[in-house]
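[SOLVED] Predicted holo structure with S-adenosylmethionine

Edit: marking solved, answer below. Original request kept for reference. I posted the sequence and ligand SMILES and asked for the 3D complex as structure tokens.
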Amino acid sequence: MDAEGLAGLLSAEGQELLGTVAGVELSTATELALNNRLRRAYPASMVAAALELTQLRARARAKFDRADHMYLTREGLEQASAEHISAHRTRRYDPYGTVADLCCGIGGDLIALAPGRDMLTVDRDPLHLQMAALNAAVYGAASVRTRCEDVRESDLAGVEAVFIDPARRHGGKRALRESEPPLIWCLALAERTPAVGIKAAPGLPREAAPPDWELEFVSVRGDLKEAALWSPPLATVQRRATHLPGGHTLVSDAGPAVACLAPGAYLLDPDPAVTRAGLVEELARALGAWKLDPEIAFLSLDTHVSTPFARLLRIEESLPWNLKRLREVLRRLDVGAVDVRKRGSAVDVEELRRRLKLTGARRVTVALTRMNGKPWAFVCSDP
Ligand SMILES: C[S@@+](CC[C@H](N)C(=O)[O-])C[C@H]1O[C@@H](n2cnc3c(N)ncnc32)[C@H](O)[C@@H]1O
């Protein structure tokens, strides 16, 4: 969609058309027939824009509760923060009444930041900027000033706090080099406005955070989603792992080193936000668990615990890694299918599955790892 397409959809005729196609399930077969019918009543370009937006709104329901009223481009939706993540981040801005959202895109963060505040909203893409303001209004924002410009040119006078989500490609460490504006520029914003939050790729190396900033990694139901850097006025700890949607949070905390001991009754497989934030020892101390190897994030303990920060598995067998022995154990346990978790193991999982040739009835988890430097395997089930 382009600016003209959006203008058409915002007209009275466009709104009527959007109302007509709302809720229609669009498949390749139905879309053609609907397209033909609608083109008798509305301009072809308006019909194309309405159908495209309707499809994007359906897809956007995975990220936004009010997706059916939002304005989106495919790229803008892909780059947008999901509503529950931006809502989580926005709590840090509670003390601030005037906030800038730099690089706002279609407003995935703006919708959470804007209600109840004066917002300065900047993007150099005029279409996304306009959509961001429309979407913020859908979420009840009343005071959004938009500026279509390079954020490097933005005058931040009067702004009390800044949020920036620079453009980046998905792709781990490359994202550091490739963010636009670069991370180094985003960090320097704190020299102008001390309260700064920066959204970053989840592959961000921990060393990228200046010593007095907080680095937060966020996972949603065990999937690592993103990192955020918080300047000192917004920071409360050095490192944090947050688990959504529950909002559980684990923070860095100095304490005695966690011992490496023999496996107990259970294996704990930490959430990726915990491992990325370097909080495995904090998790072990909080749960009374221990390590199995100084370099590996699997933990073990003897008691059944329930935590959002790790998957708990009951250890059925513990053995040095050896394909033949593992196959014998799995056959004895009547296993027909395995889920494989690897930490510190170079075993090829597909090759392993092929060579196990299992025929039993049960499904188990095989954890491949190292224990005191030696390749090791655990056969585990749900507790
Ligand atoms: C990752 S997206 C932002 C997504 C947004 N936070 C959301 O949740 O919808 C990055 C945005 O940065 C904008 N951008 C990149 N470099 C910019 C610059 N130098 N000045 C202004 N905007 C820029 C792009 O146009 C893009 O819309």
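OP edit: The first strand starts at residue 98 and ends at 102. Thanks to everyone who chimed in.
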